[in-house]
Amino acid sequence: MLIGIDLQSPICHLLLRTLIYQTAMNTNVKFGAALASAAIAGSPASAAIVSLSFSPTSVATGSSNFISVSDTLGAPIGLVFEINNGVKGFGTAAGITGFASFAPGATVSTGAAFGTAFSFSSGASFTANFGFITAANQVGWIQLQFGGLGGPITNVAGAWNDTPGQSIISGGGAVGTVPETSTTIALAGLATLAAGVGLRKARRRKSKDA
Questions:
Q1: Quick one: 56 exposed, middle or buried, by C-beta within 10 A (0-12, 13-18, 19+)?
Q2: What is the pTM of this model?
Q3: Pick from 76, 71, 140, 91: which is nearest to 112 by CA?
Q4: How far apart are CA 66 and CA 142, in angstroms?
Q5: Which of 19, 52, 53, 76 has its C-alpha lying 20 to 30 A from 141's C-alpha?
Q6: Contact by Cβ (8 Å): 98, 130
Q7: Distance separating alpha carbons of residues 58 and 140, to the nearest angstrom
Q8: pLDDT tens profile 172-182
C-alpha cells in the first residue's frame, strides 16, 4: 500500500524538522552560510524560468541524502532531504520551504497549500511532479521517480521561476497519480527511519572507539 503525507500542523512540522536535523547531524551534513544566502537570493543574472539540476541525482535503497538543487545557470536554490530506507520520501531542508503535488500543466503559485514532506511505502513505484516554494517566495517544480521495492528515488527534471511572487507551469510530460496521504502512518515511518539511522551511527562510533 502506498502511503503519502502532507504535513500541515505546527506539531507535525516541528517533528519532521527535528527528524531532518537529527539525521543531518548523524551524517555530518553541514549547511554553509554561502549556500543559505544564495538559495534565498537566487541569481540576478538568470532568466525568469530556468531548468534545474540535482546533485546527486538519485538516492539508492537503504540510504538517505541531501539533494543540492540549483538551476542550470548556476544559482543555488536549496536542499531537499530524501530518504529511501524503510520508506521512500522527501522533505524540506534549506532554502526550499514547502512542497505540494501538481500534475503536468498545472499552475504552481505562491498561494498553493504547501506542506513540508511526503512519505510513501518502500515499494512505491510511480513518477510524479511536486511544486515547491522557496524562502524568498519563488516557486518551481520537481519530477521524482520512485523506483519500487529495491529501486532508487530519482530526481528526473525540474524548473523554477526565479522572480519572487510569480507562478510557473508544472512540466515534465505524463506522470502517475500521487497516492492519498496518511499523516499518522507516515510520521511513524519517518520516526522509525530516523531512529534507525541514529542507532547505526552510534554503533559505528562505539566500534571505532573500542
A1: middle
A2: 0.68
A3: 140
A4: 15
A5: 19
A6: no
A7: 19
A8: 655 555 655 43
Distance from C-alpha of 89 to C-alpha of 115, rounded to nearest angstrom: 13
Burial string for 7-31 (b: 16+ CB within 10 Å, else e) reads beeeebbebbbebbeebbebeebee
Distance CA 179, CA 4 (A): 6
Residue 97 three-state SS = strand
Q: Which three cell numbers stand for residue 46?
A: 538568470
| Residue 114 contacts residue 137 (beta carbons within 8 Å) | no
Please tell me the distance from the alpha carbon of residue 7 to that of residue 11, in angstroms, as a whole number: 9
Number of Cβ within a 10 Å radius of residue 178? 23
Q: What is the DSSP string of 44-74?
A: TTS-SEEEEEEESSEE-TTEEEEEEEEETTS
Length of the chain: 210
